[in-house]
Amino acid sequence: xxxxxxxxxxxxxxxxxxxxxxxxxxxxxxxxxxxxxxxxxxxxxxxxxxxxxxxxxxxxxxxxxxxxxxxxxxxxxxxxxxxxxxxxxxxxxxxxxxxxxxxxxxxxxxxxxxxxxxxxxxxxxxxxxxxxxxxxxxxxxxxxxxxxxxxxxxxxxxxxxxxxxxxxxxxxxxxxxxxxxxxxxxxxxxxxxxxxxxxxxxxxxxxxxxxxxxxxxxxxxxxxxxxxxxxxxxxxxxxxxxxxxxxxxxxxxxxxxxxxxxxxxxxxxxxxxxxxxxxxxxxxxxxxxxxxxxxxxxxxxxxxxxxxxxxxxxxxxxxxxxxxxxxxxxxxxxxxxxxxxxxxxxxxxxxxxxxxxxxxxxxxxxxxxxxxxxxxxxxxxxxxxxxxxxxxx
Length: 393
Prior knowledge:
- This protein is an alpha/beta fold.
- It contains 14 helices and 15 strands.
- The chain is globular.
- The mean pLDDT is 94.
């Protein structure tokens, strides 16, 4: 491979629109092609990037200029797309969730290993600069062992415009496959070790949107660290209120938007109209997402990490440390705030160009999915579940 990693994008939806700024900003990565079934999305890509766009992944893989693929297709397609990419000798960055079953995760990991290509599972908020810095401080022992991790997210996820499949849990819809992996990976990044058990409950509180919209989990790691993870996507309270009214992607946001997504959805005339609105929020209409106004560090709700000798939490532009002698702030590199997924792109590049084994590899993605499945099993059966039993099943 040359000094530049030539990347193809499969799936030009909202995930691609969010991640492409980081790809474009990376000094050693160049977007050279894309694939999507939407002619409108392909046309927008060609106009924006001056590069070819194809209808399917097979044509994309056949394009000689592509070294690696960013797989941002609907969740249920991840396994097929990664297997095709590996069979064609392409390195892969695959969106979360890695797949919908442990069996599919194993197949993807094995295919990449056989083909000798890198497989990176991500990006998630576990790769956010503030989370990585907190994990570094925690692992240094400066504040003693990590004892407790609390992550609270309230937002409008369930009432953003959706395609019908995104409201069907069996097809990867709802918060469990879409949002909870962020919380799990934040906690895993900070603890640094495997999850032992989980006890969880989930909520389906709207008969018109019959997929999980809320969850609460008590996660115990092998280290003894516990994580309390709460998610509510029903669009009433907004946990950005606890984060200085800075949104998930780091932009400042208005304070009077409570319930706005829920109210807007009331006037949408059926699933087809809603799916059209969803398409309008993706790459075909929006193109590469730009940073509006002041930009701070990305975050995923309110995060507080308790160690034996101090507490840590992200601030707007760094990490706050609460110790015996008061509070101090460690600033973070502003260039990493937006684009805000550079860590994932770094990991793919380093794996391909420098042979650095990725931390967030197939095994990592498999354990994250196993934890999600353990949460769902725990909620359904009302019992504590060992995550290892999900991996071994």
